[in-house]
Amino acid sequence: MYHPAPQNRRDFIKFSALAAALLGFAGCTTLQRNPRKPRPIAAGAKIRLAQIGCGGKGYSDIMAHEDEEVVALCDIDWVGTPNPWDTKPGEEPLSNVKKLIARFPNAKRYTDYRKMLLEMDDQIDAVCVSTPDHMHFLPAYMAILMGKHVYVQKPLTQTVGEARELLRIARLTGVCTQMGNQGHAGEGIRLVKEWHDAGVIGDVREVNVWTNRPVWPQGMPAWPKAEPVPAGLDWDSFLGRAPDRPFSSEIHPFKWRGYVDYGCGALGDMACHLMDAAYWGLDLGAPTSVELKKIVGASPVAFPTSAIVEYQFPARGGKPPVKLTWYEGGLKPEKPAQLEANRELAQGGQLIVGSKATVYDGNDYCNSPRIIPAELHRTMAPNFPPKTIPRVPQGNPHKEWTAAIRAGQPQAAGSNFEYSVPFTETVCLGSLAILVGKKFTWDATAMKTSLPEADQLLYPTYRPGWKPAELA
């Protein structure tokens, strides 16, 4: 598989220096030149964890580590939105942040992740980042520079340049990393790879992947009207590096993902799950071109209501080239002839079309891949290859990551940055194709497309003046 090298020297120096300056604390530039190594975890000791972003996915992320020592929690809103869907009958609905305060009363609470990392530097071993997409990079970057292991939600970053920089510093420090595409720790993705590598499905030249997302608003024609900032919400910290815009409940909470300033749209959200089996199992590496084939609900401020994106991947050794087509917003490929007449394609899933057999999985995480039709699967099953790829206990990516930390083995976590960075780059290029609306070629080594307007989106932009001298 292709493993990305650092950016070209000019772009790398410019980007990494800007990122370091933006963190706004003394010593960051020195750390950037000489990042720290992680602290070894003593035998029998708990890992001291901090969570950045607690109100949404961060709640389940840190609860997955409740048997470790949770020492700090950081969120922009310590009031939060009550969650009636996770409330027992007769109980008053509580927000996720309120639940975490009750569950971890001794964990110190912050609204600024920089202040948290500085004040508790010697008390933190590892950090989970579960913020909106545009603010994945900076907290992870700072934590890695300080020698902290990181678990970062998908998509790993909003841009290609951010992803590649995280890989560079992770390699320098030797921290253990993991992206939160949990299906990568599961059984299904391993079956697909074993079947393909053993020649069960033959040569694959076509892959189709689709999702019913977005289930949040997209295609909005303009930015929403300004509203007063709710009490307790640090809106400036939500914006982070993004342009200065007024608060709106149509952005926060939850609806930020559809806006280009904060999210990556349906493709960025779900491709890290749905494309994972094909990307890993077929050893796809970097695409040679990406093209927007269809768009519905185009917008200057948001991702569209639906789209189709086509990736072209080159031949890899003895493997043929692959066309991978992404469908979103309810769009799907045609029903394959191999699927039984009484079955329809699921709301989301994938078809990996081989010369000997087609693999179909009708869920988001490749939980149950099957050869279609079902009768062919039953016929072929006795000759399936042995399970040679190591399995993750309970398919738990969080435990896989903490086990890697204890062992001091960064490669032991399956979606570590050596894998998840090139995968993230591929996902980001799909979102980029939607934004520019044209086909472009991709040179992964030079980190350059064939379109100047696409190249401008390979790196993030930063809000002027967001360089506070004080962290409080």
From TrEMBL:
Which residue ranges does the record assign to the Gfo/Idh/MocA-like oxidoreductase bacterial type C-terminal domain?
226-291
Q: Where is the signal peptide?
A: none
Which superkingdom heads the taxonomic lineage of this protein's source? Bacteria
Write down the InterPro entries for this protein, in alphabetical order. Gfo/Idh/MocA-like_OxRdtase_N, Gfo/Idh/MocA_oxidrdct_glycsds, Gfo/Idh/MocA_OxRdtase_bact_C, NAD(P)-bd_dom_sf, TAT_signal, TAT_signal_bac_arc
Q: Which Gene3D superfamilies match?
A: Dihydrodipicolinate Reductase, domain 2, NAD(P)-binding Rossmann-like Domain
Could you give a GO molecular-function term held by this entry?
A: oxidoreductase activity
Q: What keywords sit in the KW lines?
A: Oxidoreductase
State which Enzyme Commission number(s) the record gives.
1.-.-.-
The protein, known as? Putative oxidoreductase YcjS
* Native organism: Lacunisphaera limnophila
Lineage of origin: Bacteria, Pseudomonadati, Verrucomicrobiota, Opitutia, Opitutales
